[in-house]
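[Automated response] Your request has been received and processed.

Submitted sequence:
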Amino acid sequence: MAFSGPIQESYPSPQDLGSATVSHTQHGFRISARKLPISKSGPIDDMSKSLGIPVPEMIFGDNIVAVEHIASGWRVEFNSYDALDRVDKTDKNMLKVAYSKAWSSSREKTHEGIKEVVKPFDWSYTTDYKGTVKGKPFEPSTEPIPIQLLKRPDPILFFEEVVLYESELDDNGISILSCKIRVMPERMLLLCRLFMRLDNVIIRVRDTRIYVDFKSGKVTREYTATEESFDKVQKDLQRAGRMSGDVTAAMRDPNQISSLLPKVEHVLESVSVA
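Generated structure:
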């Protein structure tokens, strides 16, 4: 069978960002998500130059998740550029892989006799990104997100899952930043999660939760950082009676192992926008 013309891509082009964005409005809040393919080489080069570090292999530079209070203009957004801008650009938090000399603090490349010094950075792409806020800032709070209310069997009016970036860490594991958002009649929850597993070294989870109570107009942000050594998590799973195959699968799933990771940082904040 012969093709009669060019193949039509199923994704909208980055130039038409509006058509690629889906939105839901609830009680004066607009919740939006945009999902586009992996960025092309030109935008990737521009982003890397602007950030001052190489970007992950899979970078979704046009993807966003945002929550906006329409009347006040207050907004919190999650995007890959701002998330990567929070990656440590020094060698303070670099992780070393025993069998890979490519990731030393002053790694060098030699190509056709030209020596290029690559700027050290946290190549695990660990970020403490809590979202980009426009308008009133968050302030410290003592009132936690009401988990019991989120456990209610309320109908899901809007749901999206968006990946911002992903790296296989030079075949040494994975680092992925993604967002999930679900909207119910009276409340919504956004989870932005970094899951980083460096094989035989460490496992990290960095969670930012945005909870909105539509009736009161109060927005709560909770940031939790957890981590543990790779070996410790593996042994804990084995002690729990997991078979070898189950252990391997669990080590790749943050939902199965997050409870095994000790908390290293916790920040609770809120803001009233209504």
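Summary generated for your ticket: Helices lie at 41-51, 80-84, 147-150, 230-239, 244-250, 254-257. Residues 41-51 form the longest helix (11 residues).
If you did not submit this request, please reply to this message.
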